[in-house]
Amino acid sequence: MRKIVTLTTDFGLSDPWVAVMKGVMLSIEPEITFVDISHNIPPQDVLKGALCLGGIKNFFPEGSVHLAVVDPGVGTTREPVIIKTRRYFYVGPNNGLFSFLDSPVEKAVKIANIGLLQPQISVTFHGRDIFAPAAARLFSTPMEEFGPAEATLEKLSLPEPVIKENIIKGEITYIDRFGNLFTNITAETLRELHSRFPNSHLEVKPPGVKIINGVSYYYHSVASGELGVIVNSLNLLELFTPNGNAGECFGLKPGDTVTVRFVPAK
Amino acid sequence: MRKIVTLTTDFGLSDPWVAVMKGVMLSIEPEITFVDISHNIPPQDVLKGALCLGGIKNFFPEGSVHLAVVDPGVGTTREPVIIKTRRYFYVGPNNGLFSFLDSPVEKAVKIANIGLLQPQISVTFHGRDIFAPAAARLFSTPMEEFGPAEATLEKLSLPEPVIKENIIKGEITYIDRFGNLFTNITAETLRELHSRFPNSHLEVKPPGVKIINGVSYYYHSVASGELGVIVNSLNLLELFTPNGNAGECFGLKPGDTVTVRFVPAK
Amino acid sequence: MRKIVTLTTDFGLSDPWVAVMKGVMLSIEPEITFVDISHNIPPQDVLKGALCLGGIKNFFPEGSVHLAVVDPGVGTTREPVIIKTRRYFYVGPNNGLFSFLDSPVEKAVKIANIGLLQPQISVTFHGRDIFAPAAARLFSTPMEEFGPAEATLEKLSLPEPVIKENIIKGEITYIDRFGNLFTNITAETLRELHSRFPNSHLEVKPPGVKIINGVSYYYHSVASGELGVIVNSLNLLELFTPNGNAGECFGLKPGDTVTVRFVPAK
Fold first, then answer.
1. What ipTM does this complex have?
2. CB-closest option in C1, C36, C177 to A11
3. C19:B56 CB<8 A
4. Which residues from chain B sit within 8 angstroms of residue A37, using beta carbons?
5. Do C219 and A124 touch (CB under 8 A)?
6. Which of A149, B233, C218, C240 has the smallest CB count inside 10 Å?
7. How many angstroms separate the CA of residue C32 from the nearest CA in chain B?
8. Using alpha carbons only, how large is chain B's radius of gyration in Å?
9. Run of H or E including B192
10. B103 DSSP β-pair partners
11. Is the CB of residue B90 less than 8 Å from the CB of residue B82?
12. Does A38 contact B14 at a Cβ distance shorter than 8 Å?
């Protein structure tokens, strides 16, 4: 089985810190294969890191180790942890970064066994001194040996959409490189509400923008320059404009409210 | 033989989409080695993607699979294709992205066999659901099994330089990170015209800039702050300024005309 | 033993040049594992490239080959070199890029044997035509075969801090993505001076900023919005502001003087 380690950090791609973590891991476990998820998480933005990491879902092979370091509390008492889900391991700081995992947590331990870490542990770079060696050693060491104590995971949460009769009040939670705006409204919620209001059509209203009628099946069913909604590849309601940046063109951003209304047929 | 997949996309390096494609491929074919060509193609800029992909020429090992996704028409009827050239396979949307390949196309098929793709195919992320699994399965499945129908490839073209007597009218086609400006004028064309006007020297004239006399052999044969021309590593006439950004310093950009004149010796 | 090649360049991540170098290396030595250190060195900034490369220290496995190309003099007489230290090989232009290596140089040779390089050597892309093939062939060819002549390495240097009685005058040498500012003042120098002035506390004074009292043990021991100093993971005195960008917030940058004073207890 291939030994896969993914990396998600706010270290950027200009400094050598990501490479140093990889060097540490290759020195311990020479056969690791790395896949970079993102190193462009905005500095110290734990929520954005958590959402990015959450985007990988179950698309990696079982047994992959996901190393994530967005760590504003480095050097404080926030705990270094190893987490096991059904498919994966996760390694990093217990600060909310692991709030949106692929599946429920089966076990989480605090990393405490310094014999498994770098010989010297700095106060500013636990990615190198704690998390990288722990990730690399997970391929040969049971997670229980990293520390006896179970960890209680810190959790960030996205606001849940609020449903009231025929209306869903949700919000934009993520904007990607293309300016597509993901909401917290799932395809499942839409289907459920539609089943309650079967003879209705759907209207979507983001702030400061006119009402959008109906969900598109393709980006290209909407005219150029118009805002549309679609159920995206993560099964979330998404705002977009074809071949354009919906965030920029319509001044929309994470945190903005999106209202969906099932309008009865007359 | 090593199983090499290169990736060229407009997905950027902040979102997890590139990693998700790699996860899908590793889940199918664990021994793939990835090489990123670029993920910074400007969103939906198919021509720039095609030129970037064209830059790899024959420098990769035979049998490499080049996955490219710049796909403004995702979800429409534009075809997903697999292309074979003498050395390589290419996988992606048939929208012009494969206009400048390493060598002539030997065969191109439309991807139609959904048994070889992701179990569920979204309308917004064919990189993940169609192209990544097709690329990974090419190491174990003949391309004919992906679909019976041959594809007619969409082609973008760069303007050809126009030659009239002792004058070549070409244009700037690409600007790289250093601000070096590649033209569509090849070393071959220069040599041919020079053989017709053997007793001549060469003048190059970009818009709004004084005439450049002669082709340099090294970037450093030109004085600091001056614009020079050189035959670059792709055998194209290139405008540059030593240790500076020629595009910014001289206000030059892709699309600008460049005139080369062979001036008879008096 | 795994064949590891790291890459440090100023080529950026938008053009295909880095991938082309990897393709050349894989064509020669199919089993190479690549680790990117940085491709975002500012164009032609040899000092920044040297500092970035210096940041990897001894964190990679023994036998790793470090390929570095920041090469404003490409095509001139600056020499292509292979360097051996106790743990590593380095390959690139002899222009100061190899000034801060992991350990003293044991041997350095000028690359001269064109039989070991690309069949055609361009004047603008020695990364592809000289350095990449040399790096790849180092796994099978003794470095002496690349050229008989030993090279005298060009060296850049950072200003050494000046110590006068109880005062160290150092300077900022590097700013990272977080806006943390590294100085040239080492933990060792601090310890030595402290041993000479044992009953003293320490004051740090960057330009235009009020005096900082004492070294922090954690980023979080300093109040939000304040500037602090810490001994960082490279054992250097570093200026920071917790969860913020110290460079931007306090207008500090590489080249700025930092004065450390050991103030006698009254």
1. 0.96
2. C177
3. yes
4. 16, 19
5. yes
6. A149
7. 10
8. 21
9. helix B187-196
10. none
11. yes
12. yes
Q: Which residues contact B195 (CB under 8 A, 6 or more apart)?
A: none
pLDDT of residue B265: 81
CA angle (A159 as vertex; A180, C243 as ends), nearest 5: 80
Alpha carbon separation from B59 to B64, C13, C17, C25 (Å, rounded): 10, 18, 11, 9
At residue A95, the 3 state secondary structure works out as coil
In SS3 terms, chain C reads as CCEEEEEEECCCCCCCHHHHHHHHHHHHCCCEEEEEEECCCCCCCHHHHHHHHHCCCCCCCCCCEEEEECCCCCCCCCCEEEEEECCCEEEEECCCCCCCCCCCEEEEEECCCHHHCCCCCCCCCHHHHHHHHHHHHCCCCCHHHHCCCECCCCCCCCCCCEEECCEEEEEEEEECCCCCEEEEEEHHHHHHHHHHCCCEEEEEECCCCCCEECCECCHHHCCCCCCEEEECCCCEEEEEECCECHHHHHCCCCCCEEEEEEEECC
Quickly state the pLDDT bin for B151 (edges 50, 70, 90): very high
pLDDT the model gives residue C1? 86
For residue C19, report the phi and psi dihedrals to the nearest 5 degrees.
-60, -40
Handedness of CA A100, A102, A106, A109 (dihedral sign): negative
For residues A44-52, average pLDDT: 96
**CA distance, residue A101 to nearest chain C CA (Å):** 25
Q: How far is B33 from chain A (nearest CA, A)?
A: 9
Most distant CA atoms of chain C, gap in Å: 73
When pLDDT is cut at 50, 70 and 90, the band that residue C265 belongs to is confident
pLDDT in tens, C217-259: 889 899 999 999 999 999 999 999 999 999 999 999 999 999 9
At B83 the pLDDT is 98
pLDDT tens digits for B225-259?
A: 999 999 999 999 999 999 999 999 999 999 999 99
Residue A254 in this model has a pLDDT that exceeds 90: yes
Judged on CB neighbours under 10 Å (0-12, 13-18, 19+), C127 is buried
Kindly list the residues of chain C whose beta carbon comes within 8 Å of any beta carbon in chain B.
Answer: 10-17, 19-20, 22-24, 26-27, 30-31, 34, 43-44, 72-76, 122-125, 128-129
- pLDDT-derived band at B1 (thresholds 50, 70, 90) equals confident
B170-182, pLDDT tens digit by residue? 999 999 999 999 9
Q: pLDDT tens digit string along B167-213? A: 999 999 999 999 999 999 999 999 999 999 998 999 999 999 999 99
Interface residues of B toward A, Cβ cutoff 8 Å, are 10-17, 19-20, 22-24, 26-27, 30-31, 34, 43-44, 72-76, 122-125, 128-129
Backbone angles phi, psi at A235, to 5 degrees: 65, 35
Instruction: Kindly determine whether residue A26 and residue C35, on different chains, have CB atoms separated by under 8 Å.
Output: yes
CB contact under 8 A, C219 and A26: no
Find the CB nearest B124 among A38, A64, A233: A233
Distance from the Cα of B74 to chain A's closest Cα (Å) equals 7
pLDDT score, position A265: 81
Q: Under an 8 A CB cutoff, do B37 and C16 touch? A: yes
How many contacts (CB atoms, under 8 Å) link A and C?
A: 95
CB A16 within 8 A of CB C55: yes
pLDDT confidence of residue C75:
80
Check pLDDT > 90 for residue C210.
yes
Of B11, B17, B26, the CB nearest to A2: B26
Q: Is B23 in contact with A60 (Cβ distance < 8 A)?
A: yes
pLDDT at residue B266 tops 80: no
Q: Which helix (H) or strand (E) holds A7?
A: strand A3-9
Name the helix (H) or strand (E) containing B195: helix B187-196
Query: Mean pLDDT, to the nearest integer, of C187-209?
Result: 94
Among residues A180, A158, A185, which one has the least CA distance to residue A169? Answer: A185
